[in-house]
Structure formats: structure tokens, C-alpha cells
Amino acid sequence: MNLWLILSLFTSILAVKDYLFKPCEQNGFCNRNKHYSKNVESSPYNINEINFNSEGNFISGIIHKSLPSRTVKLPFEISIIEGNFRFKMNENRQDINSIVNINRYDETPKWAFINTTNDQFIYKNKEIIYRDHKVAVQFNPVKFTFYYKGKPQLIINDKHFLNFEHQLLNDSDLLPFESTYNTNSDDFPDSKNDKLPLGRESIGLDFTLLEFNHLYGIPEHADSFSLKDTSNSEPYRLYNVDIFEYETNSKLPMYGSIPLLVTSKPEVSLGIFWVNSADTYIDINKGKDSSLVHFMSENGILEFIIIIEEKPQLVNYQYGKITGFSTLPNLFSLGYHQCRWNYNDEGDVLDIHSKFDQFEIPYDAIWLDIEYAENKKYFTWNKETFPNPEKMMSVLDRTGRNLIVIIDPHIKTGYQISDELLAKEITIKDSQNSTYFGHCWPGESVWIDTLNPNSQSYWNNNHLQFMKNNKNLHLWNDMNEPSVFNGPETSSPKDNLHFGNYEHRSIHNLYGLTYHESTYKSLINRNSNIRPFILTRSYFSGSQRTSAMWTGDNMSKWEYLKISIPMILTSNIVNFPFSGADVGGFFGNPSKELLTRWYQTGIFYPFFRAHAHIDSRRREPWVVGDPYTGYIRDAIRLRYKLLPVFYTSFYINSINGTPVIKPIYYENLDNGDIYDIDDEFFISDTGILVKPITDEAESKVNWIIPDDSIYYDFTNGVLSGVYKDREYGLGDIPMLLKGGSIIPMKLRYRRSSKLMKYDPYTIVIALDKDGKAYGELYVDDGESFNNDHAFIKFKFENKKFSYCIDGDYLFKLEKLIINGITVTNFKNNTIVDFDIDYHDEL
Ligand code: NOJ
Before 152, cis peptide (omega within 30)? Predict the structure, then answer.
């Protein structure tokens, strides 16, 4: 490795440097779209032709862009997909002599959607009518106004920011307010080699949201839950990058992108799904009465979907019908995961494994980072440190534990796998269509092109040979932005080529998804009846179907604990619930108090994993010593007690998209004060309300009660009387339970989730003002795709507890806890009568 490389490698692992990432001003397309939006006088886009097909499910037409010298014809389409408005606009380009596919990339839905069928609708008098929605179409200039509940809710191109950078025929083929900044070259220091073979090709569009002031979504950013006004700052950027030591409260891009922006007000919730996988910026301007959102992308066709519904849950449902819901996770993966970079060898792994039992702390998975493979050559084991991995896995398996190992998309040059990738021509290519070589953990590497359909069978074989029949072996896909240490913005050059000769520029934000989906298919190919577990760092719309994600390389500081909650809430409301942050913080060494509070927060992350950098000190739960170890043990055990709640919440999410951790505004849209709360949340619709302590030496919690229900103190998962202000010691986990809720729990300590399988349930009942309560439980074998299950609905009304079971699966009741009173005098699986005065405990 030459000195330059060593230096550049070294600098890339120091703190995040703003200069490594392009600000809008220096990013050609963003600069030009901002210039356009500031200077446009009147929109040059007019609908010239519009045809409604005879089946009544499709509009096609031509939009004219009027230039001084000619008219550019832009074909467009309107359809209704799963009950939502979909718009697409493209251009017919003239061929140029180039290796690059000159067509605008229009295959983002192929990766992001599971459904593309068109519903019927009515089009007459320039109005599109579907369900109880209406869209008024203005032709000159083009503008769409969306009506719902008799009122306009959204206007598109009201501000005339619609910008479709057409293929230039000559230098004067432009409108006076179109800029030429960085049209054919890139001034940004690290991107100077970008050849921009197709020149400028960006798109931009404005969305005016009427009477909406609280906007959310468009992850991934380490920022507040409620999106900020960007009028005087950088726009939010979506560009999947390996952002080492990211800063909090920042609009810089991070590892994943979901271009779904959501907003709510009483009676109306709305989603803008910007279907584009290229580099994207989003400007937000919050006015007194409305909000203006400006999406800008570097290339691709212009495509978006508008979802308008009565409630935010229904937006989740609609979006889920298009992009798919999360697959119900393998139950073990909802347990506790113990990771660090690295557990060094088999002895180390088995020692950690047995310490959990010695300290009576449950766990479900232990992880191996990049050092397990020989010289970071994935699909191999370092024979000195891991001579007998199968034996190690079988020891773990005895107590239901799993092993998760990392396989990244960069493949070291000079060994069998990379040789074969080269021979099969399934690597990412450079701008000249030769294999692209770059640097990552193993040194010089090539990258598998998982957009290439020929990659899959090869990847299947590698996984088969490596994973064999080890049923408790699962995978971690990291660095799949892709991270390239010597690439621009630590990623692949944008003019690299993928299958179909599409530029990397067009598909950048979905490469990570193609990689982890390819892993998923390989695991299904290995065993089609075990639900695979895959953790991915990079993601896109649709990733929720096959993977979990985490928020990458955070730090052992209080501010990172705090920001983890809005980040994970954001992921939940854009249908990617299986999310978590490194408990304890990746870089650095947490204080004992911080570590304790982090576990107490982490037990509510849908994905609950502790992880640490190679240079950080060991910090497994017993290392801190008592009383901290005791507090951490209690926290982890509480997660296990609540596993039925989490599993049921994931089940509900898998059928209708309800967030697993849910912002409190979802519970009461009429309460204008709770929309921006981002340090308190519900677990799904269960009524469990959580507000983790994320400040040092804090013992008070400022509860925000979303509605006028009774809320009970549920500290540490123990139901007591109606909640009052109280102190929370370091061993206390602040929780409330909403009156009217019934919670299924499993209270016995076991070493892993698998060993809890036959344990009976304790049903916790918190009565509402009328003495009623309801709840749900989903049970199945927790690991296969068999459909044997039971869905149980609990009810408490008229002093009588009852339940009904749909399906047939192991369900044993042990006791009820009603407003804090334990009741055991009933027979299993029968309806029972209680004669207790529930008011006693109020
Ligand atoms: C970067 C990941 O974010 C981190 O979690 C991991 O430990 C390192 N890569 C090494 O694989």
C-alpha cells in the first residue's frame, strides 16, 4: 500500500469532516435546483396531451417544456397504486456514443415495491377521482391539487420548482433561469474524476402541504424526530455513506435512505414517497399555515406517490402495501445481542457465553466482526483462532444461542471468491466497464454487483458452502453503502457501472438493499423454512422486508443515547421498525451510569444489541460490577419478560405497518402539544408508555400524557397505582401503562428466548375509567414459515376476564395481575370470573 493510501485510510477513520461530504452548494444538481427555485418566473411545463385508457386505470400524456428555441416533450403517466396516486415523468433521449446506458433509470420500484398493479379511477373535467380522494389537474402550467375530506391538502408545483433537466442539444438549449453549474464536470475536490458522461440530468419538485406544520421521516439523519426548517441551513440529504463518527443534530447523510416524508394533523395524515435512488436533497420551509417541501435528485425519472389518509397508521398501511411489510422476525432476534469488534477466538466466545449464565443474564446471540475471517476474506474462518466453528456453534445451540458473523460486499483481491467474481464478470465496473478496484477493510477489494441477476446463484453457493447446516448461524451485512475508503465521499465513484450499464449515480441509494436482499435469498436457498436474520447498515425503501438495521457508529456519550430515540422512532414511522443503536456507544468508553441508562433505553429498541469498537475497553454487563451489573441484568430480563409484547407488536407490524415503537402523537392527533415529542414513545398499540432517562444524574421524568386516559405507574414493568410524580433511581426504568390495556408477559428467568418457549403467561391488566381493558397476543414457533399460530384477544369487561383464540398454538396462562392485584385462582384456558373491586387500586 502506498503512502497516499495509508494516509487517506488514516484520515478516513478520524472524526467526520464536513469537507468530506458535499454541501448542496457544491453538489452540481442541488446548486442548480436551488438556483432554479430562486429565479424561476413562470413554470415552463404544460400538459399538452392527456389520454385516459379504456380500462379506466391509466393516464398517459405529454408535458411540454417550452424553451426559447424549441419544445422538449416529456411523456408522463398517472395511475393509482394500492389506492394511492402515482406520477411518473421521463424523457426520450437521443443516443450518444457511450458505454453508459443513456436511459434515465426507472427500475427503483423493481427493488423497492412488491406491488405495482393499477387500480381503477375516474377522470373527467380535469379531475382524477379515486376512493374518497380527488385531484384537480391544471394544464398550464402543470399543477396538481389534492382534495381529501372536502378540502385541499396538498398542491404540487404551486411554487413552480418543477425542474426536469432535459438532454441538452447545444449550449443555448436552456431557459434563462436554468444554471449550468457543474453540468459536465464536478469541482468537489474528491469528485474531480467524475466524468459525468450524461451531463446534467437532475429533477426537482415542490410540494405545498396545507395546514401541516409537523413533518417527519426521510431517514437517515442524526437529528430531531420532527424535521426542521432548512430555509437558512443545509437541506436534508439522502446519500448512503459511511459517515465515521457522525455528529448529532446534523442533516448530513448517513448509511441509509428512505425517501418517504410523512406529516399529520387532526383527521388527515399524508405521505410523499419520492421514488428515486440517486443522491437527493430535501429542503423544508415551514410557514405559518403550510409547509413547503422541495425534493431534488441528481438523476433518474421523476416519480412519486402521494398517500393521503385519515390517520398516520393508515399511511403506514398504504406504504406497506406498496413496499411490503417487515417479515415477522425470528423470535431469537428480538432477544439481547452481544457484539464487539471483536471476540477474538473460540475460547473468548465460549467464555463470554458461559459468563452470561454465571451472572444469570439472558442473551440470544453473540456476534463476530471482521477479524474472524482469515485476513478479512469473507466465507473463510481464521483457522488459528476459529479451528472448529461448528463445535462452537453446537455449544451455543445447546442453550438456544445463535452466532452472527459479518459478510461485507467488498471482497479482497487475490483469493478464490474475488477471482471467481472477476471471471464471472459480476463485479461493479469502473467508468470504462472494467472491474472497479478500491480499498476497504481487507485492503484492495472488488465489489459484487448484486444488481446483476447472475450474481445470485454464485452468492447462493458461497453461502451454502460457508454456512452449511448450522441452523443457529445468521448474518451481518456491513459497509454496503458501499463504503470505499479511497472513493469520493467514502463511497463508489458515481460514474462506476452496474448491470445494464447504469451508472452508480442512478442506483447509489439502493445498492445496500440489493446486497442484503441477495444475502436473504441465499439464506432462503439454504433453508427455506427458517426465517433468516440479517442486519444491514445500508438500506432503502423495501429493506424492511428482509432485514434489521442499526444506526451505525455512534459514540459513548449521552447525546448519542438521546439522539438514538428520535432516529429509531423515525425508522419506525417509515415502516422500518427493526432498528436499534449500538448500546453503550461504538466509539469510546461509557461511564458506568451511561452504560446502565443505555441498557435501560436499549431494551426498548426493536433491535437490541450492545456493540463496541476494537479499541474500546471490554464492557459486557458483568464488567462494570454491582450495583450496575444488577441494574443491567434487571433491564435485560425486563426485555425478555416483554418478549411476547415485542413479538406481538412485530406481528401486527407485519400485517399493517403499525410502528413497533410509536410516537405519542399517533395516540391523539387532537392534542397539538405532543406532535414533536421525541423522547417518549409507546410500544405499538399496547398502551406501554416509555420515557428513558438520557441525562446524567437525572432522577426526574417530565411525562407528557397524550390523552385523558388513566395512566398507571409501570416502573420496571411492575404495575402499581395510578402514576404520580416520583424519583427514578439508577435502577429504575420509567414506564407507564395506559388504562384499558392488557399486556402478556413471561416472567420466569431463562437463559434464552428459546428456553422460554413453554413458559406460561402472566397477563397484566390496567383498567380504564369504566373498568375495561383489552389486549392481544400472537404466538407461533418463532422461527419457521409454517403458518401454525394462535392469535389471542384478551378482554376485561364487567369484572370478567375472557379471551378468545384464533388458531391453535401453545398458550398457557399462569396468573393475572389486575391493577396490581395478583389473581391465580382460575383454570387454564377457560373463561374466568373475578369479583374484585378494581377501584381499590385507583
Ligand atoms: C463499521 C461498522 O459500523 C461497525 O459496527 C463495525 O464494527 C466495523 N465496521 C468493523 O466491521
Answer: no
Mean pLDDT of the 321-344 span:
98
Ligand 1 contact via 553 beta carbon (within 6 Å)? yes
Calculate how far, in angstroms, residue 65's C-alpha sits from the geometric centre of ligand 1.
Answer: 47
**Active site amino acids:** 478, 481, 553
CA of 329 to the centre of ligand 1 (A): 23
CB 369 near ligand 1, within 6 Å? yes
Specify the pTM.
0.96
- The residue whose CB lies within 8 Å of the most ligand 1 atoms, and thus the one to mutate among 338, 479, 582, 611, is 479
From the CA of 614, give the closest atom in ligand 1. Answer: 7
Residues of the chain with CATH 3.20.20.80: 330-532
Q: Is the peptide bond before 680 cis (omega within 30 degrees of 0)?
A: no
- Of ligand 1's listed atoms, the one at least distance from the Cα of 582 is 5
pLDDT tens-place string over residues 648-692:
999 999 999 999 999 999 999 999 999 999 999 999 999 999 999
Label residue 413 by pLDDT band (50, 70, 90). very high
* Ligand 1 in reach of 364 Cβ (< 6 A): no
CB 772 within 8 A of CB 797: yes
Q: What value does the mean pLDDT take over residues 466-484?
A: 97
Average pLDDT over residues 126-132: 98
Q: What is the pLDDT of residues 449-470, one digit of tens each?
A: 999 999 999 999 999 999 999 9
- Assign domain 18-304 one CATH number from 3.40.50.2000, 2.60.40.1180, 3.30.70.1170, 2.60.40.1760: 2.60.40.1760
- Side chain identity at 263, as an amino acid letter? T
How many angstroms is it from 608 CA to the middle of ligand 1? 16
- Alpha-carbon gap, residue 298 to 691, rounded angstroms: 40
Correct CATH for 330-532 of 3.40.50.720, 3.90.1720.10, 3.30.70.20, 3.20.20.80: 3.20.20.80
Residue 760 pLDDT more than 80?
Answer: yes
Per-residue pLDDT at 821: 87
pLDDT at 3 exceeding the cut of 60: no
- Average pLDDT of the segment spanning 102-117: 95
Distance 478 CA to ligand 1 centre (A): 7
CATH 2.60.40.1760 domain locations along the chain: 18-304
pLDDT, residue 70, reads 95
Cβ neighbourhood burial of 99 (10 Å; 0-12, 13-18, 19+): exposed
At residue 503, does pLDDT exceed 90? yes
Quick one: CA dihedral 489, 493, 499, 503, positive or negative? positive
How many Cα atoms occupy the beta-carbon half-sphere of 385 within 13 Å? Answer: 17
Which residue's entry shows cell 399555515?
289
Degrees to nearest 5, angle at CA 491 with 487 and 495: 75
Q: What is the rounded average pLDDT of the residues 777-792?
A: 96
* Confidence grade of residue 835 (pLDDT, cut at 50, 70, 90): low
Burial-class residue 529 by CB neighbours within 10 Å (0-12, 13-18, 19+): exposed
3-state SS string for 571-610: HHHCCCCCEECCECCCECCCCHHHHHHHHHHHCCCCCEEE
Q: What is the pLDDT of residue 170?
A: 87
- Shortest-distance atom of ligand 1 to CA 483: 1
Q: Evaluate whether 292 touches 208 at the Cβ level (below 8 Å).
A: yes
C-alpha–C-alpha distance, residues 553 and 582, integer Å: 8
